[in-house]
Amino acid sequence: MKTVSLLIDNQKISAPEGANLLQVALENGIYIPNLCANRERDFPFAGCRLCLVEVKGYPEPVTACTEIVREGMVVSTNTEKVKRLQRTAFELLLSTHRVDCGHCWKNKKCELQKIASYLRIKLKSTRFRLILKNLPPDDSHPLFLYDPDKCVLCGKCVWVCREKMKIGYLNFAYRGSEMQVTAFINDDEIEACLQFCSQCMKCVEACPVGALAPKNESLFTKESQNA
Asked: N or C: at which end does the chain have fewer Cβ atoms within 10 angstroms?
C-alpha cells in the first residue's frame, strides 16, 4: 500500500494513502478531542465538531475526522485558534449535558472528563446557560437505561447496533433539539432482544459518556464486551 508523509505538530509521520487524519494522529500518540469518531465507519459522523485542526493552506480550521491525509500535509492541532474553537464547541455541548459524575457508572472512564482535562475546562461550565431536555431516563430496553440529558448524540450506539451488529433495536428519534436515541422494541421482540443483547451490550460499551447504563452491571463483563 502506498504511503504518504505529513507533519502533525512538527512530527513527521508516514501513513497509508487515503487514511483518516484524526485516526492517523491518534495512532501516533497525538491526541485530538473527539466524541463521535469511529475508525470502523466508512464515512465520518462529524457530529461533535471537537476535532478541529489547522491545515497549512486552508483558510480556516477543519474537522480532522473529515480530512484525508495527503503527501506534504502540514497540520497543527494545538494553536490558540484551534483551542479557542474547541473550548467553545465543548462548552456548548456541556450546556445540554447533565453532569453527575459522582453517580455515573462511567466516572473516571468518561470521554468528557478526558476532554475537559485536556482543554483545561471545568465540566460544570458557566459560560452558557444550561438547557436540558429534563426527560426521565428511558427504561424501555430490558437490559439498559438511556438518559437523554447525558447523551451527546455521538451516534456510536446507533451505528454499532444497526450497522456493525445488524440488530437494529436502537435509532435516533425526533429532530433538532428534541433528538434522542430510542429503543425500537415491541412486545413481541422482547425475548429476541434479551437473547441478542445480553450477549452483546456493544452499544453500552460504545457510549463515551455513560448515557447508556446497564440495569445490571454484572452483565457488562469483559466477556460480554468481547462477544
From this structure: N
DSSP code per residue over 185-227: --GGGHHHHHHHHTTT-HHHHH-SSSSEEESSGGGS-HHHHT-
88-106 mean pLDDT: 93
Taking CA 86 as the corner, what is the angle to CA 15 and CA 179, rounded to the nearest 5 degrees?
100
Domains of the chain: 1-131 (3.10.20.740), 133-227 (3.30.70.20)
Q: Identify the pLDDT of residue 218.
A: 66
Residue 12, Cβ neighbours under 10 Å: how many?
9
**Closest C-alpha among 166, 161, 139, 136 to residue 148:** 136
Reading the block at residue 14, the C-alpha cell is 508516514
pTM > 0.70: yes
Dihedral class, residue 30 (left if φ above 0, else alpha if ψ from -120 to 50, else beta) = beta
